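Incident log entry.

Two folding requests arrived from the same account within the same minute. Monitoring flagged them as a possible duplicate submission, but the sequences differ. Recording both here for audit purposes.

Request one:
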Amino acid sequence: MKKLFKILKTLSANMTWKMFRALVSKPVLLIPTIWGTIESFLFSEINFDESSSGRGIPNAFRHACWNLLIAKNCAVVTSEENAIHLAKFTTDLHEECFVNDDFDRKMDLHNN
């Protein structure tokens, strides 16, 4: 829990507001998005021995899987086009809020 608060403290007020608005604007899509996030971490852990949080193939796999699973899960409650848009928006917003170094950020956005 301490780690979560430490991460949240790094967000600017503008980014916090942007994330909050995104989360509450479509509450019916929140659960499928969270579930897609959990599934992407699980699939990455199953398929790779190393962590998916660093650089390399496991991280690229997790990002691609993350987008796919968010879109797949959200397509159950909205159109496929809206689900794809939401997946890209969510994962790109994550990169905007939790900034990596330039190379990692560009690669994550590319994988999204």
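Request two (distinct sequence, not a duplicate):
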Amino acid sequence: MAVHIRLSRAGAKKKPFYRIVVADHRSARGGRFLESIGTFDPLREPVRFVVDDERLTYWRSKGALPSATLDRLLKRRAIATAAAEPK
């Protein structure tokens, strides 16, 4: 079974809110998933991006692949946290 880590849309029309979920690659975007590991709210200022890093590492170790969009968000978060750390 191929497992992907991806965004699942929730929220109202023109007010998106996303859950970060681990799902079988054959499931629909908003369909069944194995586990919810975080959230992404692009409308908040600043943008709110919360991920359970422990579960993300666990699923990646099992072979789950993040979607292209989620991979971009994770890289952006890593850059932001590296810049925020004192030198």
